[in-house]
Amino acid sequence: MTKALYSGTFDPITIGHIDIIETSLSVFDEVVVAVAVSRTKKPMFDIKDRVKLVENSLKRLPKIKVVAFDNLLVDLAYSLHIKHVIRGLRAVSDFEYEFQMGYANSSLNKNIRTVFFMPKVQNAFISSSIIRELIRFGGKFEHLVPKEISKDIYEIYHNRGN
C-alpha cells in the first residue's frame, strides 16, 4: 500500500485543496491530510476547527486520514511510515518555494519524495488567504470552499465575535 502525506494549514480548506486530494487518491492508496498548527501564520481558525472542517470536507472520500501536527513534516512522515509528500502547484510563483521545500525535506530524510500536482485550471486562483479576506469583509466565499462546510466556516468565524 502506498501512502502519501498532504500537509498545509488549511485555513480554511478550499475546493482547490480538495482537487489536489482527489487527484492524489488516483495515484496513492491512502492520503494522510496533515493540518499544521502553524503559529507563525496566525491562522484565522484554531487547529481544532480546521481539523474538523477538513474531516467534514473529506467524509465522502475513501482512504483519507486527517491528523494535526506541530513538528517537522519529515518527522511526521517518518512516524507515519510515509515516503511521499504531496504539494500543490497553482502557478509558477508556487514552484520556486515548493521546489526548495521539497529539497529541504529530502536533505533531512533522503527517503522522502515530493510529488507535485496541479489543480484543475478553474481552481488555480483559489487560495485560503483570498477566502480569509472574503470572510473578513463579508464577501461571497461559499463557491470556493467545500459545500459541506461553508455554513460551518461562517458560524465559527462569527461565533468568535468577529
Verbal overview:
By secondary structure, this protein is an alpha/beta fold. It has one domain (3-159): HUPs (Rossmann fold). Helix content is 41%, strand content 18%. The protein is built from six helices and five strands, in the order βαβαβαβαβαα. It has helices at 15-25, 47-58, 73-79, 92-108, 128-136, 150-159, and strands at residues 3-8, 30-36, 64-69, 84-88, 113-117. It has a five-stranded parallel beta sheet with strand order 3-2-1-4-5. Strand 1, helix 1 (15-25) and strand 2 form a beta-alpha-beta unit. It is globular and about 45 Å long. The mean pLDDT is 94.
Could you provide a short overview of the structure?
The chain is an alpha/beta fold and 162 residues long.
